[in-house]
C-alpha cells in the first residue's frame, strides 16, 4: 500500500515539506513510544517497519486536516502517531497471516524475526496507539478510532472468507477495501478536524475525503496488479490471481462470464488449480469484457468524490495538496 | 489460566450466583457484540472460546468491584464484556504463537480454524472491547485499560525473550506474570471502582487486590506444573520444562545452582537439548534447593496481600467472596 510511483508531481512530498516540523514531532513521538523498558526487542521489530521508507500518508492526513482547520495544539501529533502505529500493527499482523515474502522490496518482519514477534509486537503497537489517543482526552476521537479499528478487523476477516470465493460481490470488495485501507484514511483525516473543533459538515467532509481517497488508491493498486509495472507497485503482475484474491477486474469479469469462462474462474480461483497460460487467459477474459476500463472509471469516480468533498473546507495550500493527492493516487492508471 | 480445581469451596461459583443477573446481561452483550454483519465467521471462532466453560473470573472481578462499591448503572456490564473480550483476544493470539495443542482440554481455535482467523478475530475482539469501553464515556477507565493493554503486550514480548534464557530474574518473571494475568485482573477490578466513583484509596485497593490475586494465581499455576495433577490444571507435569519456560521453581533453583547444576540447566533449558531422565533430574534439583517451598510461600504472600487490600473496602458479602477467592487460588498448593 505504498505510493511509489514515478512522476514529476508528488503531492505527498509537498505535503511532507509543508508539514516538516509536525512530521519531525511525530517521528520523535513514535520513537519515544516504541521504546519498551521491559522488552527491548520491540523497537528492533518496529523500527524495521516504521523506518522502511513509508510515505507517512496516514499521519499526514491527520496533520494536514488539523492544520488546514486552524488547529494549534499538540494532539494532532499524538493522533498522527496513533494512525501510524495502527497501520504498522496491521502490517505486522498481515505479514503473519499472508506469509507474504516482501513488502516494499524489503523482507517482511516475520522472515527477519518470527510470527510470534509479529503478532505480539503488533499488539504492543495497538496498545500504544490506544494510550496515545486516550491522552488526547477526546471521547469523540476515541469513538472514531474504535469504530475504525472494528472496521479494519472486520474487513480483514471478510477478506479471508472472500478469498477464493467467486460469489464475492463488488459490495463485499468495497467493504474489504474499507477495512484494508479506507477506514484508517477516513479516520485519520476526520480526527484532524475533530480536534480542531470545526463544524460537523467539515468533519464529515474530511471523513468522506479520506474514505474516497483510500478506495481510489486501493482500486488503482488492484488494477495495476493486472497491468502495472512491477517496479512501480512492488508486486508482480498477476500476484492477486495467483493468490486467488478477488479484486474488481476479476469480480466484474466473473459477473459477465459465460459458462466456459465461469468454469475457468472456478478452476483457477475457487479450486486454485492453476497452470501455465492461465494468467494469460485471465487477462484475455478481463480484456474481452473491458473490465480494466470499468474498474479504472470507478477509481476515477472515487478520486473525484474525494476532491469534491474538500470544497467545504477552508481555502488553504494544504487543501490544494490534498486535492492533488487524490489525483495522484489514480495518476498511475489514468 | 482456568481455575479448574476440585474442592468443596468454590468462591467463583458463589460469586457467579450472587452476580447471576449481571452475568446474564454481560453474556447477552458479549453475544451481541461478537456478531458481525460482514464477517459471519467471527462469532464461529469466538463462540468456541467464550462458551468454552471459562470461569469468567475477570468479568466477575469488574462486576463484584462495581457492586460492592454501590454502583447501580450499566457500565459495569460493558466493562465486564470488555475484559472478557481482551482476555479472549489474548488467548487467540497466544494460540497462534505458542502452537499449544489444547486449552482447557478442547482443541485450540487454531487447530479448528487457522492462524489467520486467530490473529484477525483476536484483533476484532480487541476493537470491539475498545468500542465497549469508549461507550462508558470515562476517560479514566480508558486510561486504565490502555495501560493494561500495553502491560499485557509488553509482558508477552518479554516472555518471548525470557524463554530459554537462564538470566531471567524473579523480577522479570513477575513482569511476565503481570502481562500474562495480573494486569488484566488488576484493571478489571479497578475499573469497577472507578465507575462507582469511590475514593482513590478504594480504587487503589481494588487494583492491588486484582494484581496480587493474579500473581498468586499464576505462581500457583506454575508451581503445579512441577508437581501438580495434570487433570486439575489441564497441563502435564513438566510442560514448562519441556517448553523451556523459566518459572519461579526453576529460576530459584538456577540461582542456587553449583557449576554442574548450571551446566545441566544450560543444556536442557538454554540449548533445549533434553533427554530421558532430564525432567526427573530437574525435579531433583528443585527438591534439593527447596524451591517448591519458597515458591509456594511467595504465592501465599501474594494471596495475603490481595486479602489485606480488601480491608479498606465496604463490608459486603461480595467482599467476603473476593477474599475467599484469594484463598482459593492458592488452596490447591497449600
Keywords:
homodimer; 334 residues; mainly alpha; Farnesyl Diphosphate Synthase; 17 helices; globular
Provide a compact summary of the structure.
In chain A, 72% of the residues lie in helices and 1% in strands. Chain A is mostly helical and 334 residues long.
Low-confidence stretches of chain A: 1-7, 98-106
Tell me the CATH superfamily of chain A. Answer: Farnesyl Diphosphate Synthase
Helix content of chain A: over 70%
Mean pLDDT of chain A: 88
How big is the Rg of chain A? 20 Å
Oligomer: homodimer
What is the CATH architecture descriptor of chain A?
Orthogonal Bundle
Topology order of chain A in helix (H) and strand (E) letters: HHHHHEEHHHHHHHHHHHH
| CATH class call of chain A | Mainly Alpha
Give the spatial strand order of the biggest sheet of chain A.
1-2
Mind describing the biggest β-sheet of chain A?
Answer: 2 strands, antiparallel
**Tally of individual domains of chain A:** 1
Number of H/I helices of chain A: 17
Overall shape of chain A: it is globular
Indicate the CATH topology of chain A.
Farnesyl Diphosphate Synthase
Total strand count of chain A, please? Answer: 2
Percentage of β-strand residues of chain A: under 5%
Amino acid at each position: 500500500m505504498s505510493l511509489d510511483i514515478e512522476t514529476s508531481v508528488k503531492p505527498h512530498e509537498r505535503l511532507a515539506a509543508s508539514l516538516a516540523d509536525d512530521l519531525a514531532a511525530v517521528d520523535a513521538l513514535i520513537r519515544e513510544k516504541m521504546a519498551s523498558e521491559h522488552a527491548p526487542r520491540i523497537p528492533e521489530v518496529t523500527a524495521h517497519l516504521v523506518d522502511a521508507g513509508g510515505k507517512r500518508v496516514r499521519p499526514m492526513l491527520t496533520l494536514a486536516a488539523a492544520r488546514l482547520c486552524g488547529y494549534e495544539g499538540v494532539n494532532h501529533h499524538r493522533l498522527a502517531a496513533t494512525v501510524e502505529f495502527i497501520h504498522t500493527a496491521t502490517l505486522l499482523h498481515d505479514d503473519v497471516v499472508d506469509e507474504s515474502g516482501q513488502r516494499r522490496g524489503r523482507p517482511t518482519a516475520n522472515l527477519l524475526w518470527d510470527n510470534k514477534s509479529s503478532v505480539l509486537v503488533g499488539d504492543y503497537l495497538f496498545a500504544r496507539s490506544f494510550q496515545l489517543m486516550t491522552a488526547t482526552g477526546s471521547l469523540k476521537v476515541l469513538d472514531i478510532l474504535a469504530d475504525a479499528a472494528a472496521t479494519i478487523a472486520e474487513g480483514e476477516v471478510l477478506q479471508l472468507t472472500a478469498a477464493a470465493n467467486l460469489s464475492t460481490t463488488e459490495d463485499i470488495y468495497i467493504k474489504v477495501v474499507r477495512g484494508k485501507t479506507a477506514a484508517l484514511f477516513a479516520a485519520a483525516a476526520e480526527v484532524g478536524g475533530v480536534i480542531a473543533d470545526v463544524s460537523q459538515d467539515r468533519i464529515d467532509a474530511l471523513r468522506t475525503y479520506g474514505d474516497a481517497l483510500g478506495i481510489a488508491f486501493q482500486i488503482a493498486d488492484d488494477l495495476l496488479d493486472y497491468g502495472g509495472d512491477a517496479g512501480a507497485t512492488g508486486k508482480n503482475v498477476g500476484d492477486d490471481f495467483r493468490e486467488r484474491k478477488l479484486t474488481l477486474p476479476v469480480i466484474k469479469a466473473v459477473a459477465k462470464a459465460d459458462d466456459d469462462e465461469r468454469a475457468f474462474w472456478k478452476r483457477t480461483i475457487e479450486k486454485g488449480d492453476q497452470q501455465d497460460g492461465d494468467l494469460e487467459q485471465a487477462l484475455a477474459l478481463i480484456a474481452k469484457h473491458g473490465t480494466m476500463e470499468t474498474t479504472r472509471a470507478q477509481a476515477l469516480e472515487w478520486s473525484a468524490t474525494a476532491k469534491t468533498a474538500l470544497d467545504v473546507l477552508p481555502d488553504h495550500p494544504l487543501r490544494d495538496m490534498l486535492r492533488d493527492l487524490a489525483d495522484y493516487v489514480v495518476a498511475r492508471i489514468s
